[in-house]
Amino acid sequence: MVPPGPRGLLLAAGLSVDQVLDRPIDRAARASDASHYRLTPAAVVIARDADDVARTITACAANSVGVTFRSGGTSLSGQGITDQVLVDTRRHFRAIEVLEEGRAVRTQPGATVRAVNALLRPYGRRLGPDPASESACTIGGVVANNSSGMSCGTHANAYRTLLALNLVLPSGTRLDTGRPDADDELRRTEPALHAGLLELRDRVRENADSLRTIRRLFAIKNTMGYGVNAFLDHDQPADILAHLVVGSEGTLAFVASATFATVPAPRFASTGLLVLPSLAEAAAVLPEVAATQPASIELMDTGSLMVATRGERAPAGLRADTLAAQAALLVPRQLGLCRNRVALR
Hints:
alpha+beta, Uridine Diphospho-n-acetylenolpyruvylglucosamine Reductase, domain 2, Alpha-Beta Plaits, 4-stranded mixed sheet, 14 strands, 19% strand, globular, disordered C terminus
């Protein structure tokens, strides 16, 4: 007899006994991520492939049970935890395939950004997104949050460098948006979704206020909410869907793999710390520093500098007892990095 509750539901869907964890210790171990939130999952699924994910989400959807995907667990906002069913997409989703002599890469959601970049390094390439947690964060989270990091801005983030996604939709439908017939396949397997995306696209494009708002919001770095700029940037529903998934925080589909265009890796990199007497003076020189086209500029107030003095690698001249009202600009430089655009195929 199949036991009741989430475990029974998942076993009935075809998952094996060792894939469904519901012991208190297993659930408690995944009750938190890098945020200060805590939610204990009702059950944990160790998915081995996209078919396992499809079985899980279709069974849960049919029984109104929520599903959350967890990979790196580096979220600062609690996106990797739930009190319902948690699917581990890290352990068995780490494959990476370098394409076109490094100009593109296909990777599963459990691979870390650092692992992908390590394979691209011999080709002098890297991923566009460069989140600070690149040693631990994974591609699933990069796609789910439209990760960018400090230096890739809007031109080389996950949205702009995306070439294709291999998706599992809530219905269990599989869709590879990189296939030439992807849009026909979406129309055949999910006709209501296909028609709905077309309707939304046309509604957005026919509304002058919507056009102005979207162009204004997405002209700058913006990772909040759905990437509705997809309705302006793409025409076919399959492409629109792929780019809506970027930044959707796992709410629209499971990303079984993602293919990205890569960017040139910097041949040389250095970082300067410009300490100034006050926050106002640091802000005043920002335009002059920005004119030199650094990779990024980070403004640090006195409190930030105080914290920095505690690090083992803090500059010798930076001491807590000398700080009063000073502020600083942290200015990294990267030579050989394409800052202006990413050439997509």
